[in-house]
Q: What sequence folds into this?
């Protein structure tokens, strides 16, 4: 009998690539400006702070009763108002941040359909889509993207489609900020019987046109995944939700209950408060828009081409020499900026770096001062 090799977890992709960049950037007067990770720096909205003050929520197991009914109503109302979609208040589930859902769902779907063994995902993408496939013992198959960083479902091999458990899309996308043709993707999924899972955590930071959701094309065979980490500066609280196809959502929700993947009571009440209030999201949206514009101006002053993404708060910056490392070291040496080399997100990313507009007013001013001195 063949001996199967044990799985050895790889290093975290972003953290493993920026050590030398950090050392170089830190050598400048004033120190490094870290634009490598999308880790929120802005205040938690007061309405959410107030919702977290009930200490009794920490004592019992998280509620699966009355609060869940309220949560479903709030998610349905938010989705209708902000995304023009229809979600039945019962067709949703909540998760401990969306990263664990992304990494864990392929295993759940492999239990639902053990005859399929393939996870499709964008060729330039957040590494957790491929990692989820690896953890489930599935094939991770990247799907080509066009020059506009939209996923190209017409490029999917028919044999891969037959074996596919799911297709992940991420729109607006990380790292490139592309906006997928959702109608085409949904139609492809329904034609081939492949569930479409759409990671929409940046949807409220869409700059090119109105916010779009996969659920705008109906719920059959599709699941939208949302997070409070970015919109509400709650990355540390760990709250997300998924909604869409009733059968798929119900199956995921029941398996996750058996796994004990319960969202804390505090995170639930904070989630309700956050989704009921859109004002703080508009304030955060304006912050990111201005930061992106200022970062583009700083790069332009250096003769580096950068443009506003279709959505998200990242700049996907091409190197004129198609050399990611060269551009990353230039930004570290001249500006003290820590960036992420593009190949972190897949081989197609060679020649790019990603910059996150997670930067304070003080550090933006520091960067503008540095670039003026070049």
A:
């Amino acid at each position: 009998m063949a001996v199967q090799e044990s799985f050895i977890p790889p290093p975290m992709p972003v953290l493993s690539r920026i050590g030398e960049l950090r050392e170089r950037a830190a050598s400048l007067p004033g120190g490094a400006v870290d634009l490598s990770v999308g880790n929120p720096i802005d205040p938690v909205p007061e309405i959410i702070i107030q919702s977290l003050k009930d200490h009794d929520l920490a004592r019992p197991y998280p509620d699966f009763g009355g609060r869940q009914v309220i949560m479903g109503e709030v998610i349905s109302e938010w989705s209708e108002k902000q995304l023009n979609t229809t979600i039945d208040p019962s067709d949703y589930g909540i998760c401990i941040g969306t990263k664990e859902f992304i990494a864990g769902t392929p295993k759940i779907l492999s239990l639902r359909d053990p005859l399929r063994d393939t996870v499709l995902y964008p060729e330039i993408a957040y590494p957790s889509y491929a990692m989820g496939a690896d953890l489930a013992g599935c094939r991770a198959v990247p799907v080509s993207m066009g020059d506009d960083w939209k996923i190209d479902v017409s490029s999917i091999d028919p044999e891969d489609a037959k074996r596919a458990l799911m297709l992940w899309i991420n729109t607006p996308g990380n790292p490139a900020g592309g906006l997928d043709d959702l109608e085409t993707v949904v139609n492809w999924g329904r034609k081939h019987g492949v569930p479409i899972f759409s990671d929409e955590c940046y949807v409220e930071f869409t700059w090119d046109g109105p916010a779009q959701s996969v659920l705008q094309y109906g719920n059959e065979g599709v699941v939208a995944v949302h997070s409070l980490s970015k919109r509400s500066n709650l990355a540390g609280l760990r709250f997300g939700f998924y909604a869409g196809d009733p059968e798929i959502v119900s199956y995921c929700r029941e398996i996750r209950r058996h796994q004990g993947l319960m969202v804390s009571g505090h995170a639930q009440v904070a989630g309700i408060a956050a989704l009921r209030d859109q004002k703080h999201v508009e304030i955060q949206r304006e912050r990111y828009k201005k930061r992106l514009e200022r970062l583009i101006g700083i790069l332009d002053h250096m003769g580096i081409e950068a443009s506003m993404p279709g959505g998200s708060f990242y700049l996907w910056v091409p190197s004129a020499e198609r050399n990611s490392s060269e551009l990353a070291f230039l930004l570290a040496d001249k500006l003290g900026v820590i960036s992420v080399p593009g190949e972190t997100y897949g081989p197609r990313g060679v020649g790019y770096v990603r910059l996150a507009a997670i930067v304070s007013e003080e550090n933006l001013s520091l960067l503008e001062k540095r670039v003026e001195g070049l």
About this structure: The chain has two domains: 15-43+280-372, 46-276. Residues 279-301 form the longest helix (23 residues). The domain at 15-43+280-372 is CATH 3.90.1150.10 (Aspartate Aminotransferase, domain 1).
